[in-house]
Amino acid sequence: MRQSQLFTKTTKTVPKDEVSLNAKLLIQAGFVDKLMAGVYIILPLGFRVFKKIENIIRQEMDLVGGQEMFMPSLHPKANWDKTGRWQNMDDLFKFKSYYSKIDVALGPTHEEVLSPTAKKYIASYKDLPFAAYHIQNKFRDEKRAKSGVLRGREFMMKDLYSFHADQKDLDKYYEQVKKAYFKIFNRCGIGKKTYLTYASGGTFSKYSHEFQTLTEAGEDIIYICDKCRAAVNKEIMADQKNSCPECGNKDLREAKAVEVGNIFKLGTKFSKPFGLTYKDKTGKDQLVIMGCYGIGLQRLMGTIVEIMSDKNGIIWPEAVAPFKVHLISLRQNKKADKIYKDLEKAGVEVLYDDREDVSPGAKFADADLIGCPYRLVVSEKTLAEDSVEVKLRDSDKIDLVKLGDIVDKIFKL
């Protein structure tokens, strides 16, 4: 991608009401733009990051047997009445259709849609288990949208729902998804700072589990057990008698964290209202047991920015970076053009700063702000040594690599 053709630009200004680091950096670097409180446009650079996060999630959900689908955002009131959440969910967007006059909701979650759909296809224990997921936009009428892209009113989310004949089967699958979530967060570069955290199960079960990533931007307080790497959300700490639920250790440390994912054992909460049953081996009707597993994509992107940045900008992990290489030409566009074409031909993703009316200092500042893993500089000085300057975004060390070796060098990095 030639930077001269990118319709967005970096900026030094951000909306006056924006206080979170993730939103400031994403706006300044040209990854997102704020439309209104809690609603952000994902711009071309941001969309590349978003799609990489999405594909990592998709790959791991497919590996645990998830079947991808697409569900509507418009939901009929009748479905939400069945579960009681039309009246009880305080952040549900509700309105009346102008033409049909029916009451509808904008989906904040999809249990009320998938449960009655599953009923059409589940008849026997032989139809279980199965899991289905989707990755699409959700809507929540947050009383106060805050924390940048970490908490919005419209956002993209991966929801996986699993359907089982009994609790034992759900428990087994639940553990598989736990492992898949850690693989996702490791691949996205935040695994070392992310903890499986016991939280309130609400009306679902005694506990749910959150995946909490340590950051001062976090909205939650968690207590970490360094003995077994489990954690407890402050909201249930009193119930735990200040001890780790995994190993009983009482020497826990307090930290701020942001929730990047959650998993729930729903039991029969959403199968019972819709009569979602199956016939067991004796021919008796039994309620289907369910689980749900969520990850917010913008929230994950924002969390990466919060913990992987410095005073100069973002430091993207390679797996989710918009481009692997930021190639900068300092008035040596012919040579840089060839390097750009050679790298692209070799399958390397390159953001090529070919702008002729921008100073070297501004180009370097933009490269740091945007945060691609590797910076390549072509200048009169480097070409005098038949070389290209190579620097990692998170390092001060600069190497000179011969022009003929640059493609091989990038592949080895």
Automatic annotation (TrEMBL):
InterPro entries: aa-tRNA-synt_IIb, aa-tRNA-synth_II, aa-tRNA-synth_II/BPL/LPL, Anticodon-bd, Anticodon-bd_dom_sf, Pro-tRNA-ligase_IIa, Pro-tRNA_synthetase, ProRS_anticodon_short. It is an enzyme of class 6 (ligase). It catalyses: tRNA(Pro) + L-proline + ATP = L-prolyl-tRNA(Pro) + AMP + diphosphate. Residues 17-317 form the Aminoacyl-transfer RNA synthetases class-II family profile domain. CDD domains: ProRS_anticodon_short. One of its GO terms (cellular component) is cytosol. GO terms for biological process: prolyl-tRNA aminoacylation. Pfam families: HGTP_anticodon, tRNA-synt_2b. Gene3D superfamilies: Anticodon-binding domain, Bira Bifunctional Protein, Domain 2. This is Proline--tRNA ligase. It comes from Candidatus Falkowbacteria bacterium CG11_big_fil_rev_8_21_14_0_20_39_10.
